[in-house]
Amino acid sequence: MAGLATVLGSGAMTNTIGEVEDAKAIFVIGSNTTENHPIIGYRIRKAVKKGARLIVADPREIRLADVADVYLPLKPGTDVALINGMLHVILKEGLVDSEFIASRTEGFEDMKAAVEKYTPEYASEISGVPAEDIVRAARLYAGADSATILYTMGVTQHTSGTENVLSLANLVLATGNFGKPGAGLNPLRGQNNVQGACDMGALPGVYTGYQPVADDNARAKFEKAWCVTLPGKPGMTMTEMFHAAVEDRIRAMYIMGENPLLSDPDGGHICDCLEKMDFMVVQDIFLTETAKLADVVLPAATFAEKDGVFVNTERRVQRVCRALKPRGQSKPDWEIIQLLAQKLGYDWNYESAEQIFDEIAELTPSYAGLSYKRLEDGGIQWPCPNPEHPGTPILHVGKFSRGLGKFSAVDYRLSAEQADEEFPILLTTGRSLYHYHTGTMTRKTEGLNQFHKEELMELNPEDAKALGIGEDDIVTVTSRRGTVRSKVHVTDRIQPGVVFMTFHFAETAANLLTNSEVCHIAKTPELKVCAVRVEKA
Amino acid sequence: MRIKLEPLRQEAVKNWQELQSFGQPIILVGAATCGRASGALDVMAAIGEKMKELEIDAIVRQTGCVGMCHSEVLVDIIKPGRPRITYAKITPELAKELVEDYLVHDNAREDLAICVQGETPDEDLQVRVVMRNCGHIDPNSITDYLAQDGYMGLAKALEMMPQEIIDEVKVSGLRGRGGGGFPAGRKWESCLQVESDQKYVICNADEGDPGAFMDRSVLEGDPHSVIEGMAIAGYAIGASKGILYVRAEYPLAIRQLKIAIEQAKERNLLGENILGSGFSFDLDIFQGAGAFVCGESTALVLSIEGKRGMPKPLPRPRTSEEGLWGKPTLLNNVKTFACVAQIIHRGPDWFKSIGTEKCPGTAVFALTGKVNKCGLIEVPMGIELDKIINEIGGGVAGGRAFKAVQTGGPSGGCLPADMLNLPVDIDSLTAAGSMMGSGGMVVMDDSTCMVDVARYFLEFSLEESCGQCAPCRVGTEQMLTILKDITQGKGREGDIDLLVEMGKAIIDGSICGLGQSAPNPVLSTIRYFRDEYEAHIRDKECPAKACKALITYTIDAEKCQACGRCLKACPTQAITGAKKTPHTIDSDKCDKCGICFSECPDRFAAVLITTGGTESSN
Amino acid sequence: MVTLYIDDIQVSVEKGSTIFDAAQKVGVYIPTLCHHPELHTFGGCRVCMVEANGKLVTACRAPVTDGMVVRIDAEGARKVQRMVVELLLTKHNEDCQTCVKDSNCKLQEVANYVGITPERMAMLRRSVTEVEIDESNPFFNIDRTRCILCGICIRTCEEINGVTALDFGFRGEHTAVVTMGNKKLAESTCESCGECMERCPTGALARKNYERPNREVKSVCGYCGVGCGIHLGVRGDRVVSVRGDKDNPVNKGQLCVKGRFGYNFVNHPDRLTTPLIKRDGELVEASWDEALDLVASRFKEIIDESGPNALGGISSARCTTEDNYVFTRLIRSLGTNNLDHCARL
Q1: Cis peptide preceding C47, ω within 30 of 0
Q2: Fold identical between C2-123 and C129-210?
Q3: Torsion angle of C-alpha atoms C302, C306, C309, C313, degrees rounded to 10
Q4: Among A13, A27, B250, C259, which residue's beta carbon has the most beta carbons within 10 A?
Q5: Which chains touch A (3 or more CB pairs under 8 A)?
Q6: Across the interface, which of C255, C286, C329 has its CB nearest the CB of A226?
Q7: Chain A residue with the nearest C-alpha to that of C256
Q8: Do C43 and B313 count as a contact with CB atoms less than 8 A apart?
Q9: Where do the structural domains in chain B lie, given as residue ranges?
C-alpha cells in the first residue's frame, strides 16, 4: 500500500470489481485469483468470454493461465525485470498515452531512462519469461482501450514489494489507464476487512482515514475526541514488535483475531518471541496455535454474531448484521475492548456498533458521509465526504489524490535469499480455494477438508525425478530457519527449481521456513521467496 | 484462366489417349471401400502375381466405385482394339484365370462378364453427372480428372464475376443434395451478400444415414470433382478457406482427398493465386466423429469449433450469415459441389435438360434391401420408383412380393406398392410422407414387418439424438418403447393413436431436422400399413412373420421325414425326435432363430411358422 | 418499442425482447423448464411453446415483432407441452417426499399447469433410468433420476463462473449432465461453488443434509476481501445455510465454495465460550471479571515499569471496522503507537 500511496496519494483498489467484466485487457500478476478471490476469478473468466485479452504472470501455472492469451512464468522475485521489460517495449513501440503522460504525470523521463536497459531479451534473462511473450504481453496490455491490473501478495510480499508496485504503476501511468472504467491498478485484499482495519489506522503511523499520527492537527483532533494525550511518534510494525520482544523492548501484547504463529514468517522465531513475552492476551473465536501460548484468552463472537461493517477490497463499506447471539459467554470484540478499557480507567460508553461507526464517520473525512442507514443496500465506496455524496467507484478521475501521478525510476534487485548449493530450491507460498489463511475457520468444515486435508507441496516433475521423489511421498523441507514435513504433489504447474506450499496447516507450518526480511518501505515480509532444501523423508 | 489451364489439360488428355492406345491391355479394378470389402486389393495382388508369372505386360489401375455393389469385385479389361469388358464377382482365383484366359489365350470368359463396352448395363435409365468419373478414372490421378475436362469449370469461373457464377447456379435450378433441397444459388447469394473479412466453404461429407454411401463413393472415386466445386464456390462467395467435413469412418475417402488436395496444390489449382487469377483458396479436411446429428449445419459448425455438436434452436442466424467462428459459411453436400463444376463448364441449360423442371439434375441413390441388384445408381429426377426397383434394381430378390420401399433413411418414410408409379424427386417424395434425404433407398419384401422397420429406424434416431430437446429425446424413446411393446405382443389398444399424437408433437416440438423427421418412419408405416399395427396389437399377430415374440415354430409331423438336420442345427436343443420319428419343437426352449426353418429341405417343408391363426411354410 | 398482442392483451416491449419477456411484463404465465433469467436462453425443453402469427415457436427465444399475435394456449403448443411434461414424468423419480425441492420444484409447477391425468399416465411406458447418485461432493449430490436435462447447471457453470465443469454427455436416451471424462463430481474440475445447485429447477442437484432455515439475515461474507453479500440462514441458534445476495453489487448473488458452505465454524463445538487464564502452565476457565482484571493490572504494571512502548497491539483484518477502531483507540490511549495487523500477510 505504501507503494501506491507514493505514486497516487492513496493506496487502495482504484476501480470496482464489477468493472473487471468489461475490461478489454486484464493483467493478473502475483494473484491466484480463482482460488483466493473466486468471485473476481469468475469475473475474469467471464471477461475473457466477452473477448477481453488476459495476461497472467505467476511462477505457478495457475488455472487462470489456462484461459490466458499470454502466460508469463516468471521466476519468483523478478517482477520488476518483467514489468520494466514490458515498459521498454511499450516505450519503444510508441504504445504510450502521450496526452495522459503530459497532462497528468511527472517523472516520465526518469522512468524512461531507468527502463532503457530492460530490453525484452534482458528482461527475459532475469525473469525466465521468453522475450517474445514479454513483447506480446506489452502489446496486448498497451493496445487495449481499457486495461486493468489485478495483483495481490505475489507482488507485495517481497523485499522489493514496493518497487514491484511502483513499476506496475509506471505501466498504468504510461498507458493512461487511470481514472476510467475497466482500468486501474487494483490490489486485491486478502481478508474480509483488511481494508477496514487499514482505514481504521490499525497501523503504526496513521489514525483513521490515513491521518498521520505525526501530524499535530490530526493528533489534536483525536486527543480531543478520545480525551487522552496521544504519542506522536509512529510505532512498530508487527514484525518489528516480534523482533523487539526478543530484546525485552516489547513485554506485553494484546492480539485480537490473529494467529501470527502460523501466518507470519519465520514461525520458529515468532514462537520464541511469544514465549519470551511477559504477558500476552489473545482474543479469538478458537483456541488458535497462538492463543495456546497466551496468559489470558478472551472468547470473541464470530461475524454471524455481531453488528458492524466490513470494507471490501474495492473500498466498499458494507453492513455485517448480527444473526445469532454470541456462543456461551463470548462477546463481540468491541464490547470486550470496552470492558477492558473501563477496567483500565477509561470512561467509555458505547452502546452499539452503530454508535462507534458514527464516531468514526465524524473523525474520518473519507467516511464522513456514511451511516448505517445509507449502507443498508449494497454499501458505499469511500471516499464519501458528505451524506449526499454517492461514493467513489473509481479513484483518480481527472486528478490524482496527490495531484500528478508520479513515475518512478525502478531497478530490479535480487530477493533477500537466492537459491544456493545448500538450499537449491526457492519456496513460494500462497492459499488454496478450499481453505482460508491459517485454517482456523475452514478446517472446521469437513467438506472443505475432503478437498484439501493436508499440505501438498507442489514440486516440478523434473525436480522430483532428480530428487527421487514421487507423488504423495513425504519430504522434509528445510530453510535457514526451520524444517517441516510435507506430502508432495508432483505437477508441471510449478516451474523447475521452485516449490509451492500453503500456510493453512499447522502440522506443516510453511511459515517456519519463510524469511522475515521485509520490504524496506512497506515493511511487508518476503513470504514469496525463500531458499529451501527438499529431501525425501 | 482457361489459357493457363490449357497446357495442363492438353498434357492430361495426351496421357489419357496414350493410355487408351498404348498397345497394352488395361486392367481396372474397382477399389473403393465397397470393392475393398469384397477383396479388391487381394484381386489386384493376384493379377499382379499372375502377370509376373506369365510375364505379361498390362497396365493395372484402380478406380472408384461404378455403383454395381451387387457384383463386387469388379474388374474391367480393355484389350487394344477390343471393347471394354466388365467382369463381376471376381475372386483372386478367378482373377488369375481371367488374366491367363483372356490375355494369353484370348478367351474373353463371357461367363464372368457382366457387360461389354464400358458403361453400366442399364445405361439408358441411368444418367451420370455426379458419378460420371467414378469407376472410370483413377481417383489418385489428377491428370485422369483433367483429361475428363476437370478443372475447366473452375478455370471458366475464375474469368467470371462472382455474381455471374451465382446466376448460372440459380438458372441451373440446382438444389442442395444433402436432403433439404434448398436452392443452392440462393444460399450462395446470401453468403456473397454478407460482408466479412473471412468466409468459409464447408463440404458436408458427414454421411450418416444407415445404408447410404453415395458421398463416400464420390469422394473415393472422384475427389477432384468435389474440390473443384468447392473452389468455385469459394470464389463465388469470397471465401479463401474451405473445409471438408468427413466422417472419420471414411478413411479411404480421407486418404484420396488428401492426395487430391496435394495434387491440386502442386498444379496451382488450389492454394495461393490460383491459375494467376489472384484468387486464393485453401482446403482442409476435418474428421467428424461420426454423429448423425452433425450433418445438421449448426451442429456441424459447432463440432468443427471443438464443441458438442448440437443443433442451435430457432430463431438463429443462418449459417450462410453467421457460421463457423461466427463468419459467413457456405455449407453444401458432396454431391451438390460435384454438380457445380459441370454446371459452370457445360452451362446451366445442359443441367436443366436433365430431370424435372423443379428438380433438375440427377438423384443418386444407394439401392439396398431385398432387391436383386444392390448398389449405387444415378438417375434423372422424376424417374418412376418402379423403374428404379424393377429395372435398374432387377426386381425383388428371391422372387418374393414387393411390399414397400423406404427412402430418406431414418428421416424418411415407407411407400407401399401402390405408389410405385410415383415420379421420384425431392418434392414428390416429401408429399408422399417420405423424403429423398441424402439418398438411401431400401426395398422391402413381404417378409418385412413394417412395425419392425419403424422400430429399426426409430432406434437409430434415438441413438443419434443429441438429447438437448425434450421432444426428440424423451418422445422418440417413448415411441420406441411402445413399438417394441407392439412387436413383442405387448401393444395396447390406443397405442396407435398415441404414436400418431406423439409423432406429431415431436415434429412440432423438436429443435432440428433430426427430431422433426424422426417420427416419419412410424407415421408413414401407420399411414400405409395400419392394419399391420392393428394385427400386432389386437391379434398378437405379425403378418410378415418377422416379430419373434409373435411367432411359433412347429414341425408338421406328417411332412417331417425325420432327417435330423433341424435337430442337429438347433442351437438351443429345442428339437427332439429320433430316426423315423417325426421331430417336435419344445416351444419353451425355442429361441426362434429360424435355423430349423432354413435347414429343413424345401422338398419336405415341414417346419411351419405360425402367427396368430395363420401358418406358412417354406 | 414493439407492440404485440398476447392473448388479446396489448403489450409494448423493447425491440429484441422475446415473447417470454413480453408475457412476463403483463403477468401472463408461460410454463418453462429450461429458461433462467440470468442465463442465455437454451430453448431445449420446448415447454414454453406458443403460437405466434399462426406458427409454433418457443417463447423464450422468439423475438417479438410489431403487431404479432400470440396465443399462449394454442392447441398445437399445448400438445407439445403436454407430451414433454408427461414424458419427463415417465423418466422422473417419483419419490417426491424425500426430495429437497418438493413443493419448490419447477417440474411439479409445470406439471400442475399442464394438468396430468392418471389415465394418460397409464397409457405411457414408465422408465426411470437407474443411475447411482453421485455423492462424491461433500456439499451437494447429483441425482440423475431427478434430472430433466434443462442444462441450467451447464450454462451456470459456463456463463456465470467460466469453470465449464459440466456439459451434456452421451446421446439419445443416455444423454446426461456429465463432467469431463464422466468423472465423479469431486474428481472433476468442479470448484464446488454450488451455483448450479442453487439454480437447479428440480432436486437433481441437491444440497446434502439440507435444513431449511427459520429466518434469514442479510450480511457480508467473512472470508476474503471481495466482500460478497449473503443471507445467513438461521435455525434455532445455528447457521444452517448461506445464500448469495442477488441485490449485492459485488457478487450479484454469486458465492464461492468457502462462502456458501464454509460456515460450520460458527456452530463448532471447539468455539471459545469462556475466558481462560493460564495457571501453572495450563489455560483454565475464568470469569470475565477475573480475566479482565488480570489483563488490566498486568498492562498497568508493565507500562509503569517499562513505559507504554513496552506494549504492543495486534488488531485484526477479520474483525469489524468498529472493533478495529475501538482497538486502536485503546492501544493509542495507553500511550503507544505499536499497533499493526496482518495487512501485509
Answers
A1: no
A2: no
A3: -20
A4: A27
A5: C
A6: C329
A7: A38
A8: yes
A9: 2-116, 142-352, 362-445, 450-538, 548-617
Task: Give me the mean pLDDT over the C15-40 stretch.
Answer: 94
Q: Which residue of chain C comes nearest to A199, CA vs CA?
A: C321
Domain boundaries, chain A: 2-188, 194-381, 425-536
Query: Which of B313, B466, B471 shows the shortest C-beta gap to C84?
Result: B471
Tens-place pLDDT, residues B187-227:
999 999 999 999 999 999 998 888 788 999 999 999 999 99
Residue of A391, A376, A373, A369 lying closest to C229 (CA atoms):
A376
Which of C226, B389, B366 shows the shortest CA–CA distance to A42? Answer: C226
- Identify from A441, A452, A527 which residue to disrupt to test chain C contact, counting C C-beta atoms within 10 A and taking the largest count: A441
Q: Do C314 and A329 touch (CB under 8 A)?
A: no
Residue A60: per-residue pLDDT: 92
The beta-carbon neighbor of B308 closest among C91, C127, C168 is C168
Q: Which residues of chain B are within 8 Å of residue C125 when distances are taken between CB atoms?
A: 478, 481-482, 485
Q: pLDDT category, B117, cuts 50, 70, 90?
A: low
pLDDT tier at C344 (50, 70, 90 boundaries)? low
Interface contact flag, B469 C45, Cβ < 8 Å: yes
Complex prediction ipTM? 0.92
- CATH, range A2-188: 3.40.228.10
* In contact, A477 and A499? CB cutoff 8 Å: yes
**Side chain identity at residue C27, one-letter code:** G
> Cβ contacts (< 8 Å) between B481 and chain C: which residues?
125, 127
**C45 to B485: CB separation less than 8 angstroms, yes or no:** no
Are C125 and B498 in contact (CB < 8 Å)?
no
B-chain residue closest to C63, CA distance: B315
For the stretch A68-111, pLDDT in tens is 999 999 998 899 999 999 999 999 999 999 999 999 988 889 98
The pLDDT tens digits of the residues spanning A305-332 come to: 999 999 999 999 999 999 999 999 999 9
Residue B493 in contact with partner chain C when CB distance is under 8 A: no
CATH class of C2-123: alpha beta
Question: C129-210 maps to which CATH number?
Answer: 3.30.70.20
Among chain C residues, CA nearest to B460: C172
A38 and C308 within 8 Å at the Cβ level: the answer is no
Would the pLDDT of B124 be above 90? no
Say if A and B touch: at least 3 Cβ pairs within 8 Å. no
C67 touches chain A (CB under 8 A): no
Q: Which residue of C has its CA nearest to B467?
A: C172
- Whether residue B470 and residue C88 make contact (CB cut-off 8 A), yes or no, is yes
User: Domain A425-536 belongs to what architecture?
Assistant: Beta Barrel (2.40)
Answer whether A299's CB lies under 8 Å from A331's CB: yes
Set of chain C residues whose Cβ sits within 8 Å of the Cβ of B473: 149, 172-173, 175
pLDDT the model gives residue B505: 94
Of all residues in chain C, what percent are helix, strand and coil, respectively (each to 5)?
Answer: 30, 20, 45
Cβ partners under 8 Å of residue A360, min gap 6: A200, A208, A367, C321, C322, C325
User: To the nearest whole number, what is the mean pLDDT of chain A?
Assistant: 90
CATH of domain A194-381: 3.40.50.740
> Is residue B617's pLDDT more than 70?
no
What is the predicted pLDDT for the residue at B618? 42
What's the CA angle centered on B248, arms B244 and B251, to 5 degrees? 90
The amino acid sitting at A508 is T
According to DSSP, the β-strands at B282-288 and B241-247 are parallel
Task: Say yes or no: domain B450-538 is CATH 1.20.1440.230.
Answer: yes
For A85, residues 6+ apart whose C-beta sits below 8 A from its C-beta are A118, A119, A120, A122, A123, A124, A127, A129, A131, A134, A138
Q: The domain at B142-352 falls in which architecture? A: 3-Layer(aba) Sandwich (3.40)
Please state the separation of Cα A161 from the chain's center in Å. Answer: 10
